[in-house]
Design brief:
It contains four helices and five strands, in the order αααβαββββ. It is α+β, with helices and mostly antiparallel strands.
């Protein structure tokens, strides 16, 4: 009887913790995959080129199991989403978003640091930013150089 109760309690505790979070594992191990790094590098080069910097100096990425936590560090923004993401940072010139809607007389957004937040499952860009201050990617996790 005690064994049955112990098993039920163990199962109840395990189910309360929820199922394993596969996207979290994908984000944490994904940057070790050369295909993932190549895809993120291509996305970074395309975004950088489209915004006026065809040959950036640095392209770095970090994996995060939680988009909300990553965005808080990258932009200070609060998103109601906890999916696994990659954050990609590109530097090496002034990027200008000439496709942005701005009021008449207001210049297009620009900055020396371009950041992309990419869903680790779909590779959809969930956030894009231009600033002059690089976010502290090391606060999110280990940084990987994608420029190579």
């Amino acid at each position: 009887m005690r064994t049955a109760v112990a098993i039920l309690l163990t199962l109840a505790a395990a189910s309360a913790c929820g199922p394993s979070n596969e996207p979290t594992a994908v984000a944490q191990t994904g940057l070790a995959d050369p295909n993932v790094r190549a895809k993120l590098r291509a996305m970074a080069l395309q975004a950088s080129s489209a915004n006026g910097v065809p040959s950036p100096k640095t392209i770095e990425a970090v994996a995060s199991p939680d988009r909300q936590a990553a965005e808080k560090i990258v932009s200070g923004g609060i998103v109601n989403d906890h999916v696994a993401v990659y954050v990609v940072e590109v530097t090496g010139g002034t990027c200008t978003d000439n496709t942005a809607s701005t009021p008449p007389g207001v210049p297009a957004p620009s900055g020396s640091v371009l950041t992309l937040t990419v869903d680790s499952q779909s590779f959809r860009i969930t956030d894009f930013g231009l600033t002059d201050t690089a976010p502290a990617l090391t606060q999110i996790g280990p940084v990987v150089n994608l420029a190579q």
